[in-house]
Write a structure and sequence with these properties.
CATH class of chain A: Mainly Beta
Order of helices and strands of chain A: HHEEEEEEEEE
Helix content of chain A: 10-25%
Number of domains of chain A: 1
Largest interface: A-B, 27 and 27 residues
Number of helices of chain A: 2
Low-confidence stretches of chain A: none
Number of strands of chain A: 9
Shape of chain A: globular
Largest sheet of chain A: 9 strands, antiparallel
Radius of gyration of chain A: 15 Å
Distance between the termini of chain A: 6 Å
Structural class of chain A: mainly beta
Oligomer: homodimer
Chain lengths: ~180, ~180
């Protein structure tokens, strides 16, 4: 749950990060930046700002904005009918983003999960992405990510996005943002 | 046919346009910018510079650079086996690009085909894209595009790219660049 005022403020702030990344948007796009608090009502810690450029049956492209140390919580994109799960490439445009995926646990990870939600962060192989660096996730791979202290802008190139089908590790999460 | 020297110069120039568009590349990416003269040996008129970020079985993302008034010649992406043709979204990041697609002929189009190749430009419905504007092409749609006088940078989000299967209207075109 997030207030209308907080939603609008987060949209405006996301826009400032997109500008820093040199990304030009139309007026219509600026107004439809999506703010996701994942139902935890703690946007600055668990949250994500998104702008979807295109999402057809076959292809999706988005810009993701993370405020400083904001976390997109652990989730995966399941198989839907005959379609394998969503395949995603994340390309960092501004700031630093730390992605966590299955694999050997990184000894001293740079990020901590949001306080109180630690139990729902189970994959700990860290991949650091700086501007110009990218990483492709295979379908059905658990992942979460957090930005460094400058925040981050990340381009996502993927197959069709069906956000409401995402499977989150934290049972408290609701993908759809409710505005009170 | 293009000389090694011309190829390298076009790579460096493309990089300057990508910088103007605020796009950060890794060293490895800078070195693999592709220069396509489409076999006509007249790069400044018929040509395209490309950087492919990712091209998996399902998803492809690229940046395209056009020098001032440079034309990407008319072509379409055919069905391959069970796969419908490539679906593409073009998003302008810098400059102006004029896309030509089937439909009502635009009365006073802004662009002229490269001299001597006019016969191979058959679709004349013009779509102008300025920074932040985009257009999605259905599979198997003939199209060509040319930049305005500042040049252009265009992001392409698409299904898998199999350039060597592209079907060009101009029979003189070879998609693969030969360096002499």
């Amino acid at each position: 749950m997030i207030s209308e005022r907080e939603y609008r403020a987060a949209q405006r702030e996301a826009l400032r990060y997109l500008k820093k990344a040199g990304i030009v948007l139309t007026k219509e796009e600026k107004e439809r930046i999506e703010v996701a608090d994942f139902g935890l009502g703690d946007l600055r810690r668990t949250g994500l700002q998104l702008l979807t450029y295109v999402n057809t049956r076959r292809v999706c492209a988005k810009e993701l904005v993370l405020f400083p140390k904001q976390t997109c919580p652990e989730h995966m994109h399941p198989r839907i009918g005959r379609q394998p799960g969503k395949e995603e490439t994340f390309r960092c445009r501004f700031g630093t983003v730390y992605m966590y995926v299955p694999g050997r646990k990184t000894p001293r990870p740079k990020c901590k999960p949001p306080p109180g939600r630690e139990a729902f962060y189970t994959v700990w192989h860290e991949i650091r992405l700086r501007p110009g660096e990218q990483y492709t996730l295979e379908p059905q791979t658990l992942h979460w990510f957090q930005s460094g202290k400058e925040g981050a802008v990340v381009s996502e190139f993927s197959t069709r996005s069906v956000d409401e089908k995402d499977v989150f590790t934290d049972p408290g999460i609701k993908r759809k943002t409710e505005i009170r």
